[in-house]
Amino acid sequence: MSRRTVNLGETGLTELDPALREHTGLRELYLHGNRLASLPDWLGDFAELRILDLSHQPLALLPSTLGQLASLEFLYVSDLAVTSLPDSLGGLTSLLYLGATDNGLSEVPASLGGLRNLVELRVYGNQFTTLPTEYGGLSALRELHLDRNPLTGLPGTFDQLTELRVVSLRGAALTEFPVALSRLPQLRQLDLRANRITRLPDLGSDAFPALEKLDLRWLDLPVVPEWVHDLERRGCLVYRTAAG
C-alpha cells in the first residue's frame, strides 16, 4: 500500500495510528496543529519522505530516528515544547529547509553544520546564546533567521557562508557588530534592529559588496562611520534611528 501525501494536520490527534506505516512510498506527511506529546521511532522508516510538518503541538521530544530520513527536504518543527533537537538531524543530507522557531532551544546541535544542501534555516524565538563554529560549513545556506534569541555574538567562521543572501538578527543580544558578515560576497539584507550594539567598527569601502538593505534601527549609535554612508551612496537602503 502506498500513498504520496497524508495530511492529518489539525485533526486532534493524540497519537499516531500504526497503520500509517503501511504507506511505504510516502512523500509528504502533515501532522501539524495536533495534540501529539510523543512520536514513535518508526517515523524514521519513511525512506522516501520529502516533507514532514510536526509544528504547533505539545511535543516535548523528537525521536532520534528522524535522522534516518535521508530523502527529507523540508522539516517543520516550530512551536513545540522541545528544549533540544536530536544530534541525528545532522544526517538529513538532502535537507533544504529547517524551521525550528518559537521553541525553548537552549542550544542547537553542532551536527547541523554538516547539512551541505541546507538553503534556509529559521531558528528564531529560542533561548540559545551561541552558535557552533561548525555552522560555517553550511555552504549552500542563503537565508538565516536568528531573531529573538539571546545571542551575544556570531562565530568567526560565518565569513565562509558565501551563498548567504539574508541574515536576520532582530531583537538578539549582540553587543558587537558581526564583522564576519561584512565579507560575504552575496549578502543582500542584514537586519540588526534592537540589539545592544553601541559602536560600529571601521570597515573599508569594500565592505558588504552586494548589500541592498541594512537595518540599524533601535541601536544606540552616537557615530555612524563613513562606510555606512558609502553604502547609502551606492544605493543600499540603510535604516537607522538617528543620523550620524
Automatic annotation (TrEMBL):
Stored PROSITE patterns: LRR
Keywords for this protein: Leucine-rich repeat, Repeat
SMART domains in UniProt: LRR_BAC (SM00364), LRR_TYP (SM00369)
Domain of life: Bacteria
Family matches, as InterPro entries: Leu-rich_rpt, Leu-rich_rpt_typical-subtyp, LRR_dom_sf, LRR_domain-containing, LRR_R13L4/SHOC2-like
Short name of any one Pfam family annotated for the protein: LRR_1
A single cellular component GO annotation: cytoplasm
Disease resistance R13L4/SHOC-2-like LRR domain segment(s): 95-194
PANTHER family: PTHR48051, RAS SUPPRESSOR PROTEIN 1
Identification of the protein by name: Leucine-rich repeat protein
Organism whose genome encodes this protein: Kribbella flavida (strain DSM 17836 / JCM 10339 / NBRC 14399)
Species classification: Bacteria, Bacillati, Actinomycetota, Actinomycetes, Propionibacteriales
